Amino acid sequence: MTGRSSFVVVANRLPVDEVPDEERAGGRRWRRSPGGLVTALHPVLVQRDGTWIGWAGSAGPAPAPFMVDGIRLHPVPLDADEIARYYEGMSNSTIWPLYHDAVEPPIFRRRWAASYREVNARFAEAAAQVAAPNATVWVQDYQLQLVPAMLRQQRPDLRIGFFLHIPFPPIELFMQLPQRAEIMRGLLGADLVGFQQRLAAQNFVRLAHHVLGCPVSGSVIEYEDRRVKAAAFPISIDVGEIDRLADNPLIRTRAEQIRTELGEPKTMILGVDRLDYTKGIEHRLKAFRELLAEGRLTVPETVMVQVATPSRERVEHYQALRVKVEREVGRINGDYGRVGVPAVHYLHQSYSRSELAALYRAADVMMVTPLRDGMNLVAKEYVAARADAGGALVLSEFAGAASELRQAFLCNPHDLDAVKDSLLRAVHVDPDEARKRMSIMQRHLRRNDVAHWARSFLTELGSL
Ligand code: GDG
């Protein structure tokens, strides 16, 4: 595979998973991973001979570049120390908690920051090699915030975009970061810096002025004789894919079967999250427990299903969270379950897209109550999965999705009484009103799907 690309995506992970090859005993092959980002970018990548640069997912030397579904993939190696320091350390124990309102205390370590710098330089180097003259390079997310500046230094001819999938914190919090000036300079290497929400873009503009003294006007920052634009591009989902999946007769049958397996409850409440302390799983369980204790909800008429997909299991914050969540589930089931009738069905497992779609379709109330979330795609998936216009969404005001899904039952997840109140309103909502709310949100999503997100960002980047 030779030739350079006029469009390059740089992300921590390649959009593929290594799976057993059914056609060759003992063999392995690459399969495109599910997910909106790759679906949205696939047409652009194919049209423009694009390349995706990222880590292939296992420690050690990187495989040679290869192709999957018409996309060129360019693996970048990470060794075990780098996974511990750059990825689990700086990315997931420093930046992730700091950018999510420090709901867990961020940990600052100089060795992690050094590794983050080295790995970012490696990604930038790979992009510099792969990009054709005057190409567009789109860098993704918090693991790679130094890449834009590092890349610009080697390749000033490129048009560089950056998109942050998680929140961007206010000045008071960001100022804690020992590498604050370095990260700001890193991001300002881009021509366009995209965020999930307008407030995040505003935080960034203010920080450019506060930390580096850049002149700013509206959404434009002047930096080293260039103009950098900061704006909001709320990410979305492949609405058509979820809609087709959830409306498939097999999935509808599976949804009915799930309700039978749960004992035909009157109300099925669902949560689907990575097991992450930003997702507010404990708060949600506590709200459910209090409603059971007060007799305002009862088992077996009401059951809760909580899927908590295993995530970042080697990071300490996550191990502690798992213990707390599982203790709360045990307490609820101990107090309110009966033989064969648990109050909470807790599933610390990863499911297929089809099973998730069936769960969405089966649930009367979906609870999405993060303490802070860049967007939260689960909320959008639930809405898109309800072609029947059934169901009700309880949504945290602190999810990016709350700016768009205004017809959800919104709540402040830190206010337990407010969570309980929203949950009860969703449980008892009049079906006509529920259908209206769902239809309005669906219309919004159909116009604002992930393809629209990618197009808006790339059009803006192209026009600068
Ligand atoms: C980050 C930001 C932002 C979950 N469990 C399973 C599974 N999932 C899928 C969901 C959804 C995705 O994972 C999770 O996306 P979220 O947006 O809800 O949350 P994060 O992973 O924290 O994502 C977030 C997002 O980036 C995009 O910019 O919205 O704010 O934190 O698609 O369906 N998928 C499968 N099995 C599971 O068990 N197959």
Automatic annotation (TrEMBL):
InterPro entries: Glyco_trans_20. SUPFAM superfamilies: UDP-Glycosyltransferase/glycogen phosphorylase (SSF53756). It comes from the Bacteria. Pfam families: Glyco_transf_20. PANTHER family: BCDNA.GH08860, TREHALOSE-6-PHOSPHATE SYNTHASE. Belongs to the glycosyltransferase 20 family. This is Trehalose-6-phosphate synthase.
